[in-house]
Amino acid sequence: KNITVWETGTVGGEYIKTLGHYHVGELSETYWVIHGEGIVLLQKRKTGTDGLPINDEIEEFKAIQVKAGSKVFMEEGWGHLVCNTGKTWLVTADDSPVNFNEVDPVGLPGHADYEPIKKLRGFAYYVIEKDGKPMLVRNQNYKNVPMCRI
For the chain, where are the E strands, in sequence order? Predict the structure, then answer.
């Protein structure tokens, strides 16, 4: 298992988070929350007539609040990121494969595609702090996004 630790706080009003990615190939993943609390964002892209994903059109979107003891399953084909919305460290374990022969196996593993997220400057929604609570704000770089609330 892999262990990830997020510090507390915000950057520009947005909670500390992972960059987020889609998996390459047929790969699902499970996260177990060990300590703290946060929000897991999951998004599934629409598929074009050519069978390829349309990066700026999201078919389904979920914002899942988690805390110590929570478990979240990321299905194949779903992009995901995690942010720390709590007052303490957020710590998770996951079953994602790590190939230590890669150039940057932890920061940029080969099984993860970060480029669509980078190009669109994040996920379909950002998790920001408003009046001390998390709130979703739509990323305007996406053409089509379903409504979602925390």
Answer: 2-6, 10-11, 14-15, 22-23, 29-35, 37-47, 53-67, 71-74, 78-84, 90-94, 112-113, 125-130, 133-138
Q: What is the pLDDT of residues 89-117, one digit of tens each?
A: 999 999 876 655 545 545 545 578 999 99
Is the separation of the CB atoms in 125 and 61 below 8 Å? yes
| Six token digits for residue 72 | 């979240």
Distance CA 53, CA 60 (A): 13
d(CA 65, CA 95): 20
Write down the pTM of the prediction.
Answer: 0.91
Closest CA to 90 of 69, 112, 68, 105: 68
